[in-house]
Design brief:
Layout lengths: L22 H12 L7 H15 L4 E6 L10 H22 L3 E6 L12 E4 L2 E4 L13 H4 L5 H21 L5 H5 L12 H20 L15 E6 L3 H6 L1 E3 L6 E3 L4 E4 L9 H7 L5 E5 L5 H11 L8 E5 L6 H14 L5 E4 L7 E2 L5 E2 L2 H18 L3 E7 L34 H19 L5
Parallel strand pairs: 1-2, 1-14, 2-5, 5-8, 8-9, 9-10, 10-11, 11-14
Antiparallel strand pairs: 3-4, 6-7, 12-13
Helix pairs in contact: 3-5, 3-13, 11-12, 12-13
The structure holds phosphoenolpyruvate (PEP) and cobalt (II) ion.
């Protein structure tokens, strides 16, 4: 294999790259970014990789969630806090069900770039580049906004840095105290018969905390009860940005992409001579690979040869996203192949991207039922194959949006227009996310206990 450099991706096939009109301006921005401080530290990335290695061995669970696309306009401390809180609540629920440590990871502090199926959008006879995320262009349909602007990378860096700063303060500064985190708003389950099951689980968690406190284990003497590790992640799509934040760690001499702890390769850019694969090959960060219905098992094995030649545990997370109708016919085959090749991976399920449909008014939505069905089938398939359903990858927010239909609040097709705020794909709202965590947790606990369905 050729030697790797942080810019060697430039000789490979770059898909979904914005067409910047001014190359000099782009170079100037890359230079500026290259001199900015790293967003994350190599030591944190190494810890994450170690805990992911445990997940790959069946000793942990990965919860990854956040916006489809973060935006400059919805940058707001309350929204960051609410997403953080919901992820913590979901992690508590999942820890209880799986009896395993749960890695908390946001699609946050850098999830700004989107690959779009159509490069152009036509409206009223005007043809403009598609919106590719706030780090590339603006969502408003006019030529000024839609022209890719490299200076947006500087704004994205600054927003990622402030977001990360707040997340670090929450994670370390007392906000993450399990006692507070646990007081989740159960109001939403009041009137529903399903609610009793949820309340029961919540009460059990509460009782365990009280028991521990009575035994003298509380947040004053047990830091794990008041501090959490929280990791950041995004799709490594915009390679000039990723390259500029790629640095050599002074202690180990190894190369890290310091834009996030974990980055993933999207379903549209995961092919053997892809620039995105080439870039990820040389960085030490744990890498996700999205696997959609078009995945060819032979090609996936080639990608693993490139990205993880030593089969190091924790390096690769396969994020499968087949949709509830296709998972049964694709996932078992893929698991068998990975197992027969003796590869070590974390298996995570993204039940969002294979379940997108159009609402009656033309809005993109995802029925909660379909999301849940994919999650359940994923757990059952791994159980049957003897592998570990090690994670879940969600598009979600802590806000009360109406973007996905269904769930306990029974959001209807007509309700979608009430609070449809996403800049890209529809997200589970806080209630739906918590509900999904409860249901997935029940299913995982059944699977662990060997209960037959
Ligand atoms: C995403 O995670 O937002 C995304 C674009 O996913 P995929 O690459 O799986 O389509
Ligand atoms: Co998405």
């Amino acid at each position: 294999m050729q030697s790797w450099q942080k810019n060697s991706w430039r000789k490979f096939v770059v898909k979904y790259a914005p067409d910047y009109p001014d190359g000099h301006e782009l170079s100037a921005v890359e230079k500026t970014l290259g001199a900015f401080p790293p967003l994350v530290f190599a030591g944190e990335v190494r810890s994450l990789k170690e805990t992911l290695a445990n997940v790959a061995e069946g000793q942990g669970f990965l919860l990854q969630g956040g916006d489809c696309a973060e935006s400059f306009s919805e940058f707001d401390a309350d929204a960051i806090r609410d997403t953080f809180r919901v992820i913590l609540q979901m992690a508590a629920i999942l820890t209880y069900g799986t009896k395993l440590p749960v890695i908390r990871m946001g699609r946050i502090a850098g999830q700004f770039a989107k690959p779009r199926s159509q490069s152009y959008e036509v409206k009223h006879d005007e043809k403009l580049p598609s919106y590719m995320g706030d780090i590339i262009n603006g969502i408003e349909f006019d030529s000024k906004n839609r022209t890719p602007d490299p200076t947006r990378m500087l704004k994205a860096y600054s927003q990622a840095a402030s977001t990360l700063n707040l997340l670090r303060a929450f994670a370390d500064g007392g906000y993450a105290n399990l006692k507070h985190v646990h007081s989740w708003n159960m109001g939403f389950v009041k009137s529903d018969p399903q609610g009793d099951r949820y309340r029961h689980l919540a009460d059990q968690i509460q009782e365990n905390l009280q028991f521990m406190e009575a035994m003298g284990i509380d947040s004053s003497n047990t830091p794990q009860l008041r501090k959490v590790d929280f990791y950041t992640s995004h799709e490594a799509l915009l390679l000039p940005f990723e390259e500029a934040l790629t640095r050599q760690d002074s202690t180990s001499g190894l190369t890290y992409d310091t834009s996030a702890h974990f980055v993933w390769i999207g379903d549209r850019t995961r092919f053997a001579d892809s620039a995105h694969v080439e870039f990820c090959r040389g960085i030490e960060n744990p890498i996700g690979i999205k696997c959609g219905p078009s995945i060819d098992p032979d090609e996936l094995i080639r990608l693993l040869d490139i990205l993880n030649p030593d089969d190091s545990a924790g390096r690769i997370t396969l994020i499968t996203r087949f949709g509830y109708e296709k998972i049964d016919s694709i996932l078992p085959r893929l698991i068998k192949r990975i197992e027969s090749e003796g590869r070590t991976v974390v298996w995570s399920c993204d039940p969002m991207h294979g379940n997108t449909i159009k609402s009656s008014r033309g809005l993109k939505t995802r029925p909660f039922e379909h999301v849940l069905t994919e999650v359940k089938h994923n757990i059952r398939i791994h159980h049957a194959e003897g592998t570990h359903a090690g994670g879940i990858h969600l598009e979600m927010t802590g806000q009360d949006v109406t973007e996905c239909t269904g769930g306990i609040a029974d959001i209807s097709d007509e309700d979608l227009t009430n609070r449809y705020r996403t800049h890209c794909d529809p997200r589970l709202n806080a209630t739906q996310a918590i509900e999904l965590a409860f249901l997935a947790s029940e299913e995982l606990s059944r699977s662990n206990n060997g209960d037959l369905w």
